[in-house]
Amino acid sequence: MTPTYSAKDIAVLEGLEPVRKRPGMYIGGVGSAGLHHLVWEVLDNAVDEAMNGHATEITLTLHRDGTSITVTDNGRGIPVDRHPTHKKPALEVILTTLHAGGKFDDGGSGYKTSGGLHGVGASVVNALSKQLVATVKRDGFTWEQKFGLGKPLGKLKKLKPARGTGTTIYFHPDPTVFPKTEFDAETICHRLEVVSYLHRGVRVTFENQVSGEKHAFQHERGVVDYLEKIEGDRVGRPVHDTPFTVNREHGNGGGARVDLAMRWTEATDEHIRSYVNGIPTGSGGTHENGLRAGIGKAIRNYIETHTLSPKGVTLTGDDIREGLVGVLSVFITDPQFQGQTKDRLNNAELQAQIDSVVRPTLEQWLNQNGTAAEAIVARIILAARAREASRAAQQVTRKSATSARLNLPGKLSDCSDRGKANSELFIVEGDSAGGSAKQGRDRRRQAILPLRGKVLNTEQATMTKIRENKELSDLVTALGCGMGRDLDVSKMRYGRVILLADADSDGHHITTLLLTFLYRHMQELIRAERVYLAQPPLYRINIGKETYWAKDDPDRDAILAKHGNGRANAEITRFKGLGEMMPKVLWETTLNPATRRLLRVEISDALQTDRVICGLMGKDVSERLRFVTERAEQAEALDL
Ligand code: 0RA
Fold this sequence. Notes:
Number of strands: 31
Helix content: 25-40%
CATH superfamily of the largest domain: Histidine kinase-like ATPase, C-terminal domain
Number of helices: 21
Structural class: alpha+beta
Number of domains: 3
CATH class of the largest domain: Alpha Beta
Bound molecules: 3-[3-(1H-pyrrolo[2,3-b]pyridin-5-yl)phenyl]propanoic acid
């Protein structure tokens, strides 16, 4: 009889040439995200080993060159015995064979790596590394095999006797594939910390040999510890003591492993961090929808059965979840991600699965925790009443706002092309700068709104305070597109809004405050690519007959190094503020579309952004200024 091979058996295994030919297909691109994808891939394999109870420790070392990494775990060790069909050590097979869909389940040998939880498998990392060394402790010995560009540089070697088991992968990405091979320590460190929260008990260590720093993370209470960390970084105290938790290891809930910790706080927004197989899902998806649905049903049911329904207001889902902070981590076998940044879960079945786990457990928890339930229900009813009150107040202002243009702020110098795509509203700090900008602008397409005084830090303010703030309400009125839930980007009175502040630290601070407001309350404007930062110069440098403009100190030094012989023949003027600049100079350097440079504000990773904004504008004041100054260097699009 002829043996039957299913298509899967044949199609699954290939050589690594396709990876080198089209790396983007496997890791999403060869930019920084793609480079770090290699790290996540190697890390995931170690995490997998820990998740299945075989490893308790993971160490990641960023080596001194900043471009190579070692990941070690104390798991079972990659098998080194001969693979029955490939006639090679299993380790070599795993590292040189492409596994479709990241899964490699070789029925016969019993090897199963669900390591592709993140995607593609260690062989892809190997293919894209100029060097990779796998070291395994297993069967009483240390074993080692070296690879270059995915090809074995020699056979698997049996080295000295060893106690214990484990796997160590060293890799150095190929600089001919990646234009930039420097790893970002902060990104890696943050990811490792998250791993330690999502896998309770596992000891995760980051050794940064570039900076000499070492961090060790270990959390026995897992997502509950994570919840408390997030709450600590944000404003709004908890409204009840014990968090609500779910911890379902496989089986129940239709197959998904579910880990959840959440608590209502006094914050005015909802903050849920979700993960699928340890991958952050910043744009949510079916698992988050299931969570929201489950919470909504449980709360409504509880309120009904205890006859707590408020009079005169109906509770919306948003009311129910106002102030909720939560961490949801699920592990599933075949995650499907969608969306531009592939950070939204699309597996339809997850919605009902999570819903059916959360609803009954939360309802039961509410019934057993009367004090907490009371506080939560009171919090929800308060949210609903506040919403109704602010809606009523808004309707009054909106009625008068639509009736006339007269309500536009008095300090706004409008442009004649307002409403057209190429029109621009400049938000300028201070009246004197506003004056220069007003004179220097192109009146046809550029409008100027000067803001006086300090802008409110919206991260710590209530909605009422935000609405009462003159500077912010002027901004909202001038833009004409509403804010919060009423935002309608299509109504925006200008093609772009451009923030123009002094090039000094005060200016950066104001920019940060405005960005925080826009991010929290007019986020669609940023997503629609309608928000920009102007880049006014800080220095004028005259060298001989030439004039150069520098936006900061490094820029100045670069110009001096390139065009001057040191500082000797250069004449340097530092602008104290925009107001000091002649209108013509402001036009030439900052306003004129032909000569200026703008940064487009963009949200590359919603979770990361939230983290940064909380860090910046929440409790820790010291972190604030670093942000815009550092990020503004990154030219072109600014990662908010
Ligand atoms: C295949 C089979 C087994 C373990 C592993 C792979 C494994 C892979 C990696 C990658 C990094 N660390 C790892 N640790 C283990 C199971 C072998 C057995 O049954 O003992």
